[in-house]
Amino acid sequence: MKVSLPLMVLVTVISLSTPVFSQSGETTVDYQKGDRIAATIEFPYSASIVEDAFKMYMEKKGGKKDHIKSFDVYRNTRLDENDPEIVDVHFKVERKIFKERESSVVLLLLGRPGENIGARTIDDRFKVSDSKELLNRMAPYIDAYNLDVQIKKQEEVVKKSEKRLLNLKDDQYDLEKRLKSVQDKISQNKNDQLLQTEDLNRQKDTLNAILNKKEVSQGNKLSKQ
Fold it and tell me: Which helix (H) or strand (E) segment is 90 a member of?
């Protein structure tokens, strides 16, 4: 007979093992009190997961981290090892809730080294295509990072479950020892009861013999009178 996994287990396994590759687009974002063109992409993960993955990815590029308003900035970053040009990478992650499900929207702008993006005009499209391409390249990295986080979390759950099982086995061993001790005491008690019953019967026999002897003696005295 073929045994199937419970539905929820199958759903969990499939959702953890299947990458979710998003595609980037573009939007306008309020940057220092003005709308600017930015690349954007959405992930079905929590903001903390996406932020951590993004930061880890950018740190490998060797850029110097800065912060402007609500944007993190990695300055003087070389996006490709063979890329002769360096840029400032401005990004932020916004949390999104829809029907009790959390997702994250990444907003990204590439700037010239040291550029004040807040001074750009609304139609400045500097490296918008490169920004979208960067997000597309990062998508599988963020998917993989999320999967690693889920694996680590599940490993912790497994460890806790294993520990709980070991504790239960230890409890069983202790209970079985106590049960054996009680069973031994019960067996000894039954044996003691048998011995005590035999002793009681002997004492009763002795008592009856003495009583009979007394009756015989009193009968003899009465007959002599």
Answer: strand 87-98
Rounded mean pLDDT of 164-185? 96
168/172 Cα distance (integer angstroms)? 6
CA nearest to 132, candidates 22, 36, 20 = 22
> Mean pLDDT over residues 73-86, rounded?
88
What is the end-to-end Cα distance of the chain in Å, rounded? 98
Residues 90, 76 contacting (CB under 8 angstroms): no
- Inter-residue contact 111 to 138 (CB < 8 Å): no
3-class DSSP assignment, residue 109: strand
DSSP string covering 110-177, please?
A: EE-TT--GGGS-TT--TTHHHHHHHHHHHHHHHHHHHHHHHHHHHHHHHHHHHHHHHHHHHHHHHHHH
Q: Is the CB of residue 38 less than 8 Å from the CB of residue 106?
A: no
Distance CA 60, CA 62 (A): 5
